[in-house]
Design brief:
The protein is an alpha/beta fold. The chain has a single domain, classed as Response regulator (Rossmann fold). It has five helices and five strands; from the N terminus they run E-H-E-H-E-H-E-H-E-H.
């Protein structure tokens, strides 16, 4: 009997402006069983996508998302949305974590932080741990 896929049935939105990273992460999350993996490049795309129900289980957010947009802004917006309170906000970044802490309004903005680069199997393991802790 096969073991269940670690992300089976989940809906995940990946906020990432690097097309190669976004494609790799999207492919890996689908391989791990995610039912849907949407990619957004800008804060506006995230807001448009999340305006329609159902909300995702996880939003995996890069710190730098192009131009003058930042993942912190996306996470703040997500946190203010009443219909997205169940959605896990996970920072997935190579940015300096000390700088991110200084810019974050509090330690509740993200449910978890995953540093890049990270092999896909490790990313999936870390996401699974976060889900198990909820």
């Amino acid at each position: 009997m096969n073991a269940p896929l670690p992300l089976a049935g989940l809906h995940i939105v990946v906020v990432e402006d690097d097309a190669h990273v976004a494609l790799d992460v999207q492919t890996g999350l689908r391989w791990a069983g995610a039912a849907a993996v949407d990619v957004a490049v800008t804060a506006r795309q995230v807001q448009q996508r999340l305006a329609l129900p159902p909300g995702p289980d996880i939003v995996l957010i890069d710190f730098y998302i192009g131009g003058d947009q930042f993942g912190l802004d996306v996470a703040r917006w997500l946190r203010r949305q009443p219909t997205l309170q169940h959605t896990l906000r996970i920072l997935h970044t190579s940015a300096d974590l000390g700088m991110i802490r200084q810019q974050s309004p509090d330690d509740q903005l993200f449910h978890a932080v995953i540093s890049k680069p990270v092999p896909l199997h490790s990313l999936i393991e870390q996401l699974t741990r976060v889900l198990q802790q909820r």
